[in-house]
Amino acid sequence: MLATRLMPCLLMSNGALVKTVRFKNPTYVGDPVNAVRIFNQKEVDELVLLDIEATTHNRGIDYETLEKIVSECFMPICYGGGVNTLEDMRRLFSLGMEKISLGAAAFENPDLVRQASAEFGNQAIVVTLDVKKGIFGGYSVLTHQGKKDTRVHPVEAARKMEKLGAGEILLNSIDQDGTWSGFDMKLLREVTKAVHLPVIASGGAGSLQDVRLAVSEGGASAVAIGSMAVFQGKDLGVLIKFPSRKDQEAVFA
C-alpha cells in the first residue's frame, strides 16, 4: 500500500450507484457490486461507500445490499450513511466493514463519537464533514446531504471531533463535488493545519494533478475520488476506472 492513500468514493442510493454534482441531481452510474469487482481487479487499496439516502430520507441502513458488496470486496471499506447507534456500528463491523463514517449523527449526538472510538478504536471511526461556502465566503458544515446547516465552521468541527476521539476526517466540499475543477485548497489547508488527524480530501478531483496538489499543498493524508472513478471524463459516459499503481506512484513520489 502506498504511503499516501488514493481511494474511490462511491455514492449509493436505493441500492444503486450514483454520482452527484454539488450534492444534487444524482445520476445512475451502475451496480455497486459490479463496480467493486472492477476495483478488485484494479487492486484498489481502500474504498469509501456512502449511502446518500439513508439519513436524508430516514431509510436506515441497507444491510442487504451491503452484505452483497462486502461478499465481493477484497479491500477495506469505510461505510457511511444512516449510522446512528453503537448497535448499528456493531452490526456493520460484524458484516465486515473496516471503518465507519459518522456524519449527521456526530453533530446530533457527539457523544456517539467518543463511545464508538472507545469501543472500536479510533482508527475505525471517521467523521465526514460536508462543507459549503456561504455567500460571504465563510464555511459551514452541512448534514443530511447538504440540507441542514449546523452553522459550525469546519475547523471548529474538526477540532471537536478530534477531541471526541475520531481517528480520521473525511473533508468534502459540496461546492466542488462532481465539478472536476479541483479541490477547495483554502478549505483543505485550514482544516489540515487545525488538527493532527489524517484528513481525506474529497470533492472536486478532475485530474491526478488535483490529487497531487491536495497532498503537497493542501496537507491531505489521503484523497477520495468520485467522478474520476466512475466516468470516462467530464461530460462523458460511465466507465468504472482507477489510476494504475504506476500512475499513483508518480503522483505521490
Your description of this structure?
There is one protein chain. By secondary structure, the protein is an alpha/beta fold. It has one domain: TIM Barrel (Alpha-Beta Barrel), CATH 3.20.20.70. Helix content is 34%, strand content 26%. It has an 8-stranded parallel β-barrel with strand order 1-4-5-6-7-10-11-12, surrounded by 5 helices. Helix 6 (154-164) runs parallel beside helix 7. The model has no long low-confidence stretch (mean pLDDT 96).
What is the fold's blueprint, element by element?
Elements lengths: L4 E9 L2 E6 L2 E7 L1 H10 L5 E5 L11 H10 L4 E4 L5 H10 L3 E4 L1 H5 L2 H10 L4 E9 L5 E5 L4 E2 L4 H11 L3 E6 L11 H10 L4 E4 L5 H9 L5 E4 L1 H4 L14 H7 L2
Parallel strand pairs: 1-4, 1-12, 4-5, 5-6, 6-7, 7-10, 10-11, 11-12
Antiparallel strand pairs: 1-2, 2-3, 7-8, 8-9
Number of domains: 1
The average pLDDT value, as a whole number, equals 96
Q: Tell me the structural class.
A: alpha/beta
Distance between the termini: 14 Å
CATH topology-level name? TIM Barrel
- Strand arrangement within the widest β-sheet reads 1-4-5-6-7-10-11-12
For CATH, the homologous superfamily is named as Aldolase class I
Oligomer: single chain
Q: Which parts are unreliable, with pLDDT below 50 for 5 consecutive residues or more? A: none
Order of helices and strands: EEEHEHEHEHHEEEHEHEHEHH
The gross shape turns out to be: globular
Number of strands: 12
Strand content: 25-35%
If classified by CATH, what would the architecture be? Alpha-Beta Barrel
Main β sheet profile: 8 strands, parallel, barrel
